[in-house]
Design brief:
By secondary structure, the protein is an alpha/beta fold. It has ten helices and 17 strands. Strands 2, 3, 6, 7, 8, 9, 16 and 17 form an eight-stranded mixed β-sheet that branches. Helix 1 packs across helix 2. The longest helix is centred in the middle third of the chain and has 22 residues.
């Protein structure tokens, strides 16, 4: 186990990792980018099919609309576009990447994986490429791997992508899931910083004995969820790993500027905030516009925070997720880092030029 990935209940790891030169260094965010489909699906057609009201959906999920990919679109289209926007925000050329990590559960092919396709599409010819399969907590897991690679000196720049087309694995007649999910992608560029730790200890946990609560059989290809039990465990695990990640980073919850949780369900966000006594103004809630996009929800939430002016350099940002497996994870990111290219990371949701395609940045077309 990497010294930067801490299991729940394990001793706190050392905060500095030595490089081959013997100097401590860390990993920090250098750029952020997102890409979502232009097609917006509101609650009306879903409510009509399920025989419920639009208000019924909002009250149970917090969702009013979601983005849905066109049938001809592929997951790698969105992942690559989000990655290019993150690279533009970081002012980094694709050939400077050492590694591309793609967290997803909805790639269309068994092989090749999504990551090598994304690396090829963005021009990262020299980069290694790995898919990370941890469902909704995949982005946090990929972030842990990226930070460890950078801190250890095995990589200088890593692209971390969370991308899912959840509409492809949703049963439109299942009341427990039909209105929950949407499609999208988001990405961060992680870069090396000397004498500074931009990513705190990463708390990861799992419980395979409860895996049937959120599951998709390969033959059916549809996600099934036991909603009530999943809700309770999500609130418990997110609350626990929030406290653990903040403590491992040496911060109280009052010292966290932004809480960017996996956007699973509006009621889960509310329940976690109430249990921990969090200021609702610091808890990002963008599920109303995007639904649950699985591995993409955290970077989408970060883009929402960036557009709201909440991600100033030095801001303490806690990211946490819970998902199928069951798996969960959390860490604290210090946004930007002194003396590095990542000192003032930007979001390509507002700065990168949009390619001619059916996909939009966070507040692009299709509204």
């Amino acid at each position: 186990m990497s010294e930067r990935v801490q299991a729940v209940g394990a001793p706190e790891p050392a905060l500095a990792t030595a490089t081959s030169r013997g100097a401590p260094r860390g990993a920090s965010v250098a750029g952020l980018g997102v890409a979502v489909p232009s097609k917006v699906v509101g609650n009306a057609p879903i409510a009509a099919r399920l025989g419920v009201s639009e208000r019924w959906i909002v009250e149970r999920t917090g969702i009013s609309e979601r983005r849905v990919a066109a049938p001809e679109d592929q997951l790698a289209d969105y992942a690559a576009e989000a990655g290019l926007r993150a690279l533009a925000a970081a002012r980094l050329a694709p050939d400077a990447l050492d590694l591309v990590l793609v967290a997803t559960m909805t790639h269309e092919q068994l092989s090749p994986n999504a990551a090598p396709l994304v690396a090829s599409r963005i021009g990262a010819a020299a980069a290694g490429a790995i898919d990370v399969g941890a469902a909704c907590s995949g982005f946090v897991s990929a972030l842990a791997l990226a930070a460890a690679q950078v801190e250890s000196g095995r990589a200088e720049n890593v692209l971390v992508v969370g991308a899912d087309l959840m509409s492809r694995v949703t049963d439109p007649d299942d009341r427990s899931t039909a209105a929950l999910f949407g499609d999208g992608a988001g990405a961060l560029v992680m870069g090396a910083t000397e004498h500074h730790d931009g990513v705190g200890p990463v708390i990861l946990g799992s419980d395979g004995s409860q895996g049937d609560l959120v599951a998709a059989d390969r033959r059916e290809g549809i996600l099934r969820m036991k909603g009530h039990d999943t809700f309770r465990r999500a609130v418990d695990r997110l609350s626990e790993c929030t406290v653990s990640a903040a403590a491992a980073a040496g911060r109280s919850l009052d010292e966290i500027d932004v809480f960017a949780y996996h956007q699973a369900n509006g009621r889960i966000l509310t329940a976690v905030g109430e249990r921990l006594g969090l200021d609702a103004r610091r808890v990002i809630d963008c599920i109303e516009r995007f639904g649950n996009t699985s591995a993409a929800t955290i970077p989408l939430a970060l883009a929402e925070a960036e557009e709201a002016g909440m991600l100033e350099p030095g801001a303490a940002v806690l990211v946490a997720a819970f998902g199928g497996g069951l798996t969960w994870g959390a860490t604290v990111i210090e946004w930007g880092a002194p003396g590095s290219a990542a000192e003032e990371p930007r979001s390509a949701a507002t700065t990168a030029a949009s390619p001619a395609s059916p996909r939009d940045s966070l507040n692009g077309g299709g509204r």
